[in-house]
UniProtKB/TrEMBL annotation, chains A, B:
Reactions this protein catalyses: tRNA(Asp) + L-aspartate + ATP = L-aspartyl-tRNA(Asp) + AMP + diphosphate
Quaternary structure, from the entry: Homodimer.
List of residues binding ATP: R219, D220, E221, Q228, E478, G530, F531, D532, R533
One family name in Pfam for this protein: tRNA_anti-codon
Molecular functions (GO terms): aspartate-tRNA ligase activity
Species: Olivibacter oleidegradans
Main localization, broad class: cytoplasm
Protein name listed in UniProt: Aspartate--tRNA ligase
Length: 583, 583
């Protein structure tokens, strides 16, 4: 027993107790004949008091302690003269009788404080020190709480947590696999799972009825700030369900999580079709914390002789309430924003509803005041509002206006991290066209079922076939997605055909699944949540990296352990592989 | 909504209800004008009744259903005339009004019954069908329950579940790593973790105080029946603890699990030193479900002129109570057993304490009746007992006698799978000599701390240094093991030196850990349980394979998905690796 209590535990109720505490030296200060040390552990901070009058030698030793030294003290709980009511232990301190240094510490390369002076690279290299900081540790405590709450909810609902294999088989469909050479099967490779998709479907064929797993998944993709080569999913599947059953149950899960972990009532989740989401927000993951919905203006703005509008497939606007006072400079900045190569718009048209009731647009020479009035009316604009309009190819323009809407949301403080707005986006297209490969790809994955009434369109208008697929979106981020699966061999084969698989390819890669479908597969469907992303939203963070204990950088490296690394020639020989000469 | 209830739910309390059920056709039988179908799902079996008098067409369709068809029925709950009180739904049946085939099924390649006719290979290939069988599914339900109970207990005790990375760095120490070529870091490799050992220690340095994880680990070893290339650990670590704290807490965990999941009181776990375990059982994982402890007989049996005893380092016996009646043939069989190459003994000596009080041994010509009496007395033998004695090199002889003891335990029915005997084995040696490499290896791993009082022996008698290391043993199986770790850089460096690491090797492989020790590392220790093995013991099974949803065979293959497999040249090119020509 190194300690009797933790550093977050003692209060006035413990006055007079003889205790032993352990922890790290947070900071120390001298006041006259006294030395005070804040000692920290995971649970809190306790003040230690050393009085020169009582024991000068002990006090002298206390003064020699550096930041982050690991110490053990024995002493008595006494009342503090100068109380700190911000912390739970702030009314007491420890009158120290004995002090032992358990381990000395070099000065850390950055401050172990809530606000630190360490840059990203340094903090990644010394991740074990960064993890000592309260905000970082609190993210992982939140993650722990969410994982336990998810499991508790799903266990209550009769879901069985089943571990699926990590060493599986590479399939070319989808993202790039990480592969693992097999020593016992020369020249062959395992792959790490991008998701346990086929295994959870097999568990449904096995009659497991309700499955879940909080599970690591892997994708060898070029990394962005919010991507990691290994990430965690809450992976779920149910048999004998329709889409409605899944939406209801997992809406309940999310409500439970918000209530349990954040004490937030998220309410009933609205449902929006993919088509509506694109039409009203230009995104399949609309941030519904704020309105500013798109208004299509073709009938209002076309035919007035302004070629940009007249020649456009779509003319569409948003209303920034109360922004009529934006200066020319501010509007120019917004125009520059949408013209950036990442967004690629050619311009931005505004209409300002001035305080005096007059209307002023950047295309006044094409529009009469009456026409401007009709425009403002179509936008449901009031005095003081600013209307921003874009025009062009429908899909591209929607995506561009979505970026502008989000930027305005940021500027206007409408994207509050402490506010949560969740919804379901449903009726996703089954297929999407890929310009690179000149063929249709599965928008979710090849096991997603088409809506029965749309199957006939597979041959004539594949892009219009809707799927029984759904995403959960919170604050403009897709946190989960799933579908009702195909469970009949014939339909699955038809889908593979439409995705450009030869029969042989389909059989080699997914033969076991199609075979399984012939032995009594039940209707089934499921969902997977990106757990890292869900935690980051709960934590109010922008990046998933902050909710991962030991993340990798954008080159896929763990700079703390210096991985990946070279391996020995002996290892390569045993695996019967070589590094290419060109590498 | 495909169903209103499950197949394990309806009872007499539901009489008259209109219900909808879904499930698999277990079997069907005709009785006069009636057809009865047992419909199965995960939750149970419900009897469906089709009466030709009511609806001949419906009954005709029911008769066409094959085994394992997936069906949906609507009907009314009625009382059964012939009740089956063995199952929860045995007093009711469904008078079916409507029947829909959701999916037809080919005849499965083996019987989906508790007792099946399928061989191992066939059941592995069609694992998704084997998982439909109650005993197989029940193992995984048990696994789920145990995982939830473990998490609930540890969460209550303040442990945080933290996910550690799967893509880490290869280290030559220990077993062989699986490696993962990195596309973004040409010529470099990740390794899959054999355990999260260093990461959990870093979390202690980070002040996480109490960590756990139920986590997949990987070892590329040649497989035996009870080994899998991927396996699951309950991995735990605590700061500011001594060995005693860990033993007490995890003893509580095991007691909680036994009580919660099996309603078994496992009681206080005895502690036995490694030295005693070897002396009394010839094993560091003694099966303490039965006695039959070793008795060392050197003083009693040496000097009588029998060279095998006289020249032996150790003469040691066990007493098989009530086995004096063993025939010569039975004793010959035991002798053959210990002479098998896997055991390698040269012979077996017996002493029989006959019912008439006489003593008979296989070495009578060397021993007087008085000497035989002394022998029997040393063994605390009674009339009717059989004494079996082996002699030779102490270590080898103990191991051989351990095998004999276990075999006798089996033969005498003393190893009851429904009886549980758990203990701690403590004070393991720190190092063990390896004849192949001619050097000492860490018996647990290089981070295990030596007992402070034994550190001086590191230079003079390394094999005698005891570690603060402990195993939990249940029914002769090591289910968990751990240690108090080294937390000081100097001692860790000393250990690496004794393990034959150059300073450079130690720095390259574990520099990050030794650096971490210089920034304020607390004393810490932990334990890891083999979760697969623990579940298999709770389930009364011999192999861990039966508690894994999708296990691999002895060649490391998943024969269901046919993995590992070849990958495309394009994948190899992207990874800049080649398969060796000799492969």
């Amino acid at each position: 027993m190194y300690r009797t209590h933790t550093c977050g535990q003692l209060t006035l109720a413990d006055l007079g107790k003889k205790i032993t505490l352990c922890g790290w030296v947070q900071k120390s200060r001298d006041l006259g004949g006294m030395t005070f040390i804040d000692m920290r552990d995971r649970y809190g901070v306790t003040q230690l008091a050393f009085n020169a009058d009582d024991d000068e030698a002990l006090r002298a030793r206390a003064r020699e302690l550096g930041r982050e030294y690991v110490i053990q003290v024995k002493g008595t709980v006494i009342e503090r003269s100068s109380k700190n009511l911000k912390i739970s232990t702030g009314e007491i301190e420890i009158k120290v009788a004995d002090l032992a240094v358990l381990n000395a510490a070099k000065l850390p390369p950055f401050l172990i404080e809530d606000e630190t002076d360490g840059g990203d690279d340094l903090r990644m290299k010394y991740r074990y020190l960064d993890l000592r900081r309260n905000p970082v540790r609190n993210n992982l405590v939140l993650r722990h709480q969410m994982a336990q709450a998810v499991r508790s909810f799903l266990d209550q609902q009769g879901f069985l947590e089943v571990e699926t294999p990590v060493l599986i088989k590479s399939t070319p469909e989808g993202a790039r696999d990480f592969v693992v050479p097999s020593r016992m099967n020369e020249g062959q490779f395992y792959a790490l799972p991008q998701s346990p998709q086929t295994f959870k479907q097999l568990l449904m064929v096995s009659g497991f009825d309700r499955y879940f797993q909080i599970v690591k998944c892997f994708r060898d993709e070029d990394l962005r700030a919010d991507r990691q080569p290994e990430f965690t999913q809450i992976d779920c599947e149910m048999a004998f369900v329709e889409q409605e059953d899944i939406l209801n149950l997992f809406e309940e899960l999310i409500s439970y999580l918000f209530k349990k972990v954040k004490n937030v009532e998220i309410g009933k989740l609205p449902r929006m079709t993919y088509a509506d989401a694109m039409r009203l927000y230009g995104s399949d993951k609309p941030d519904t914390r704020f309105g500013m919905q798109f208004v299509e203006l073709n009938p209002v703005l076309q035919g007035a002789g302004f070629p940009v509008f007249d020649n456009a497939e779509l003319v569409v606007g948003i209303k920034a309430e109360g922004c009529a006072s934006y200066t020319r400079k501010q509007i120019d900045a917004l125009t520059d924003f949408v013209k950036r190569p990442q967004i690629g718009a050619t311009g931005l048209v505004y209409l300002r509803y001035n305080e005096d009731g007059s209307l002023k647009s950047s295309v006044d020479k094409f529009f009469s005041q009456e026409q401007l009035q009709a425009w403002a009316k179509a936008m449901d604009a009031n005095v003081g509002d600013l209307i921003l309009v874009m025009a062009g190819d429908a899909d591209k323009t929607r995506k561009q206006l979505n970026e502008l809407r989000l930027e305005l949301g940021n500027q206007l403080g409408l994207r509050d991290k402490n506010k949560f707005s969740a919804l379901w986006v449903v009726d996703f297209p089954l297929l999407e066209w890929d310009d690179d490969t000149k063929r249709y790809h599965a928008m979710h994955h090849p096991f997603t079922s088409p809506k029965p009434e749309d199957i006939a369109l597979l041959d004539t208008a594949p892009g219009e076939v809707r799927a029984n697929a759904y995403d959960m979106v919170i604050n403009g981020t897709e946190v989960g997605g799933g579908s009702i699966r195909i469970f009949e061999k014939d339909l699955q084969q038809l889908m593979f055909k439409h995705l450009g698989f030869t029969q042989e390819e389909a059989q080699t890669q997914f033969g076991f699944l199609m075979d399984a479908f012939t032995y009594g597969a039940p209707p089934h469907g499921g969902i997977a949540f990106g757990f890292d992303r869900l935690v980051s939203i709960f934590a109010g963070l922008d990046s998933i990296r902050d909710v991962i204990a030991f993340p990798k950088n954008n080159a896929g490296r763990d700079v703390m352990i210096d991985s990946p690394s070279s391996i020995s020639q002996e290892q390569l020989d045993e695996l019967k592989i070589e590094i290419s000469a060109k590498a």
